[in-house]
């Protein structure tokens, strides 16, 4: 498993000695740089990936807090300082934890575990598809989801209706429903799937989409109302 790349930014050699020793004892961290001021850290970050910064607050010329404010998208940070008065302000900048010097190894490990837990809680979302692939007249066609107004069951076929064209493909509404993102489409009837953002009006059991009125089945009305309310 790849270790998390970290750097130490502190103007005191003694602080480096302690933190480097602790980092080397941690199986989850890899020390990739030691910086003694904000300028060195900025230069390193400009050209290298860093997952975690151990950052001293009280540094000459540019303080740790000033350094964080300079970064558009700073790595996760654990602050290290002998002064506690900055603790509240530091959390405004997404700081993972705050260690008071002298730092004990158990407290260091607790801060690292907080960093690891934070990273594990961020689950990357799969990118939603932008098109749907259908077979029409023996050819495979890509239809942009953003252009679809609604989808209608039509015997053994399905009609995919856009403002410019209607596509007819051998499929079922249930099969199509599994291929379109649930965040953008909703089933409103056993025969219809609607693009939720294209619905301009819903009343008297009917929805309006680009001058087309579509029926809403009784069993689908509650979900439709909730979805429209959350747009």
Automatic annotation (TrEMBL):
Q: Which Pfam families match?
A: LytTR, Response_reg
Every copy of the HTH LytTR-type domain together lies at: 132-230
Record-listed 4-aspartylphosphate modification sites: 56
Q: Which UniProt keywords apply?
A: Phosphoprotein
**Could you tell me which residue ranges the Response regulatory domain spans?**
5-116
Q: Which InterPro entries match?
A: CheY-like_superfamily, LytR-like, LytTR_DNA-bd_dom, Sig_transdc_resp-reg_receiver
Provide a Gene Ontology MF annotation, just one: phosphorelay response regulator activity
**Cross-referenced PANTHER family, in alphabetical order?**
STAGE 0 SPORULATION PROTEIN A HOMOLOG, TRANSCRIPTIONAL REGULATOR-RELATED
UniProt protein name: LytTR family two component transcriptional regulator
Organism in which the protein naturally occurs:
Sphingobacterium detergens
């Amino acid at each position: 498993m790849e270790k998390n790349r970290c750097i130490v930014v502190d103007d005191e050699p003694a602080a480096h000695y302690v933190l480097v020793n602790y980092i080397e004892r941690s199986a989850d961290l890899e020390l990739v740089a030691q910086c003694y001021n904000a300028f060195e850290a900025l230069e390193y970050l400009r050209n290298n990936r860093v997952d975690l910064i151990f950052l001293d607050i009280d540094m000459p010329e540019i303080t740790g807090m000033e350094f964080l404010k300079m970064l558009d998208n700073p790595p996760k940070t654990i602050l290290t300082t002998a002064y506690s008065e900055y603790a509240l302000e530091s959390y405004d900048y997404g700081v993972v934890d705050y260690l008071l010097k002298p730092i004990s190894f158990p407290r260091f490990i607790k801060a690292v575990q907080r960093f690891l837990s934070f990273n594990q809680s961020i689950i990357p979302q799969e990118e939603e598809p932008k098109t749907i692939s259908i077979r029409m007249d023996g050819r495979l066609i890509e239809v942009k989801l953003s252009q679809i107004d609604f989808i209608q069951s039509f015997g053994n076929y399905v009609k995919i209706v856009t403002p410019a064209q209607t596509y007819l493909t051998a499929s079922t509404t249930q099969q199509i429903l599994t291929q379109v993102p649930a965040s953008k489409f909703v089933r409103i009837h056993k025969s219809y799937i609607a693009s939720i953002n294209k619905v301009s009006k819903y009343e008297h059991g009917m929805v309006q989409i680009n001058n087309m009125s579509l029926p809403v089945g009784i069993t689908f009305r509650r979900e439709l109302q909730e979805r429209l309310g959350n747009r």
